[in-house]
Amino acid sequence: MSIAVQCKVVCKVFGAGPGAVTALKDVDLAVTDDEFVTLVGASGCGKSTLLRTIAGIEGHSTGEILVGGVPVRGPGVDRAMVFQNYSLYPWLTVKENIKFTRQLAAHTRDRSSTDVEVAAGRAEALLSVMGLTVVAGSYPNQLSGGMQQRVAIARALMSRPRILLMDEPFGALDAQTREVMHDLILHVSRLEHCTVIFVTHDVEEAIYLGQRVVLMAPRPGRVDTVYAVPLPKERNQSMKHNGAFLELKSQILERIRSTSGMKTDLELLQRLSRTTTEV
Ligand SMILES: Nc1ncnc2c1ncn2[C@@H]1O[C@H](COP(=O)(O)OP(=O)(O)O)[C@@H](O)[C@H]1O
Ligand SMILES: [Mg+2]
């Protein structure tokens, strides 16, 4: 298995002087081709920053990030990002939204007719695999949140990225829609042979989707523990009730509590409430 993404002692500091924030400290992480890795951790532990530096949207301060063995110097068509807010163009139809970024990525106005045909074929295939064919001519505001996010994913896949970077993409969706999206993204990422790095603060989501769960901790943002998920690659919803799943979930939740300062806060709160009752 070759390595798709490698972070070597990556540090990212925002600002300077006493107000500087170390968002990432000495992050070492290697993600293999076709792997689905989830990043989980308390708010502020650097999950989005790590994803953005891999995407090349944000520069890292020190260390090295390699994608396919090549150092990241900025964004590239080999990587695509999907955010929580669907960021679709409201004035374009579903199909136009999917095709539009490819036109931008190609940086060309005079593309050959073959290019246009290939793009049209690719868009049709993505509409079909994402279950969007019937709404191809609709506008984003006519669709549910789940459908809009399907369009955003299809658009991200349009340029055949090697790596899909997803930052809490299902955070705004209701529980039932999220379950459907989970199975859809697992299916599509396998079909497209994409390496996925998926950020979430939902531990259950992280385990269900990930072959490995990377737990990050805050102040400074860092990788705390990497867990191998003891489930077959093919997932189904009933696995969420399986003993190994539940055991890993409570192990990760406990670790988040103890690394995020939450546990100390809770103990302090309990002590305070005892004192108040005694008075
Ligand atoms: N553009 C920025 N300028 C200054 N500080 C930032 C910026 N982006 C993120 N941070 C800080 O870096 C830390 C990590 O943030 P972030 O990566 O967004 O965490 P997460 O996604 O895990 O919630 C936080 O303390 C946050 O306030
Ligand atoms: Mg974030």
Task: Give a verbal description of the structure.
The chain has two domains: 191 residues, Rossmann fold, CATH 3.40.50; 73 residues, no CATH class. Helix 2 packs across helix 3, helix 2 runs parallel beside helix 4 and helix 6 packs across helix 7. The radius of gyration is 21 Å and the shape is globular. A hairpin with a 4-residue loop joins strand 9 and strand 10. The protein starts with a strand and ends with a helix. The strands form two sheets. A six-stranded mixed β-sheet has the order 6-7-8-3-9-10, sandwiched between helices. It has a four-stranded antiparallel β-sheet with strand order 2-1-4-5, with helices on one face. With 279 residues, it is of the alpha/beta class. Helix content is 40%, strand content 23%. The structure holds adenosine-5'-diphosphate and magnesium ion (MG).
